[in-house]
Every structure is written in structure tokens, then in C-alpha cells.
Amino acid sequence: MLENNRLNLNQLHLGEKLPPWNLVSIDPSDMLPKVEDFKGKPLLILIFSFSCPGCLGRAVPYANRLVYEHGNDINVLGIHTDYNAVNFDNEFFEFWKKELFIRFPIYKDYNYDTTFLNYGAGGTPHWILVDKDSIVRYSIFGSDPNNALLRLDLKLKELNINTI
pTM for this one? Predict the structure, then answer.
């Protein structure tokens, strides 16, 4: 389990299988997903924080649009990280899910930032694109439409998901 491996930084390597994540459910009745659950379709992981303006204003809406326009062709998963170690309650997450019309499943990062650290995220938002075979194809930090999101669009196109 990754909890014993919390500071094994940047286990993520392009061209290799996506390493396991360590998540906490927002709803205790939810089953936690495993990497293997997403095989068969590309997976876009959004590591984000509700305290991040770029996440709220650009990243979450971008991920929502992908689900709305391409939900049959791609899975999207949100991992909320918090390097300030604030333990938000489930009502906080439910509020933001409704406020932002989040259309994809979101989970809390174990111990606030374990997956964030293990995946070598550069900050929030951070994107990880995985192909249908769970191979990491791209990893990028940011939400600037003329940089990170444009590059992400091009990588998605390589996986036959035409977002532009």
C-alpha cells in the first residue's frame, strides 16, 4: 500500500504503467477505484484543489466539458489534494460538486497529498493522461488555455479524442 511509501516521489514515468494511487472516498458508501478499473478507455486524471483559482476557473470546467462531449471515449477522474493539510468534511465536497456541476468522480488524496507527491505533480492543477492500456502518455501542470490545455488537447487527439 502506498501509505508506507508516502515519500517515494515521482513514481510516474512516461511510457510505463500508471502506478497505483491512494485515495479516500468522499462518500463512505463508494467503492474506491483501482487503476485497473479504467482499462479499455483512456483516462485523464485531474489532480486539483478547491483552493486553486486555476482549478476552479479553468481545469474543472475543461474536465467537465470533456466528460460532456467525449464521455463515451474517455474516463476522467479527479483527485483533490491539499498541501495545507486541511481536512475538509464531506459536505464541503458535496457543495463544490454541485457548485461547479462536476460530472466526473472525485476523491480525496490520502493524507492530503500522497498521490500528488508520488505522481510528481508540479502543483495544481496537474493532468495525467493514460491510454486504454493504463500506460502513462502525458503529464503536465497548469490550466493556461494557450499552454497546458492546448498541449493536452493535442495529446488527446493522438488518442483519437478530438477536442479542438
Answer: 0.91
Cα distance between residue 163 and residue 5, in whole Å: 36
Kindly report, residue by residue over 99-113, the tens digit of the pLDDT: 999 999 999 999 888
Domain ranges across the chain: 41-158
Cα 74 from Cα 96, distance rounded (Å) = 23
Region of residue 59 (phi > 0: left; psi between -120 and 50: alpha; otherwise: beta): alpha
Which residues fall within 8 angstroms of residue 140, CB to CB, at 6 or more apart?
126, 127, 148, 151, 152
Tell me if the domain spanning 41-158 has CATH number 3.40.30.10: yes
Find the distance separating the first CA and the last CA of the chain, reported in whole Å: 39
